[in-house]
Amino acid sequence: MRCVLHGIPALGLALLVCGAQGFFLPNVTHLEKLLSKYQQDRPHSRARRAIPRVDQEEILMLHNKLRGQVSPPASNMEHMTWDEELARSAAAWAQECIWEHGPTSLLVSIGQNLAVHWGRYRSPGFHVQSWYDEVKDYTYPYPHECNPWCPERCSGAMCTHYTQIVWATTTKIGCAVNTCRRMNVWGDVWENAVYLVCNYSPKGNWIGEAPYKTGRPCSQCPPSYGGGCRNNLCYREETFHQKPETDEMNEVETAPNPEEKHVWVQPRVIRPTKPKKAPAVSYMTQVVKCDTKMKDKCKGSTCNRYQCPAGCLHNRAKIFGTLFYESASSICRAAFTTASWTTREAWWTSPGTARSPFSSSPRETACSL
Questions:
Q1: Structural domain boundaries enclosing 334
Q2: What is the percentage of the chain residues whose pLDDT exceeds 70?
């Protein structure tokens, strides 16, 4: 979801905080040809990683550090690990160089944070910290405030980057960085824009839920952790230790030795199956007023989803346009004016640009614009 932001400086630094392949080797000659590329002094091409190892380690370390120091303290915050599948999906989207969340088919099952900058170098950790710094605008909902749904209180333009980082049950992350030669960011074309995409699983930011439970660290960890706790995070001791990767690893897959055969057959266990449930789809929203303008809520990030109070259709907030609305228009008035509403309350995502048509689709007792 994109919004137009005017007045971005033309010079200087601009910041926005909105796999290994296997080869079949038929004979030795083929293998020798492949290996010869790495025995010569000239540069060679190889499959690029989604993100350099040093950046991967920085992102993962910083996420776990920040998750372990939330305030109020979390009683069920789980340790986060790197996931290559998420990294590959992040790389695929980063290569599209589109400044919006996507692809749509994945957003139902994953969380996603985006950042882009141009100018002097900024590490991925700089953007992760910027996402987390939204905490200054976020008010944690205590259990007594959740009856049964928790209020979502964000006094700034966006808090969902922060809440995704500290969502207790999100345990996997995969990120990618791509340099886009030309990238349209809110109507302006940025050259050599550095685009960071981080995907999360299981996704967070569910409406009506707090990002974590508060209490003594690790006092409410899931049983699967066996009581393990490290740096205030529910932690499971792993028996598998991955070998450190170097530039020469995972280049060529050699043929297995015929004398070494390791066969392990898992015993078949028949268990009764439960009927599959359709996945619930929900989104984090931000409460706005009837007179809140579009241009005031899309600063420095991709746009959020908003909840408008009842009665905005007859409010005196100004709108400019018919079907197509200027960014100075009231978000709620524009939406209510465009669509036919039969409910007292509405939820929607703000439009992608300052002059874009709204479209509506009903979902149970609400409409999404």
A1: 285-354
A2: 61
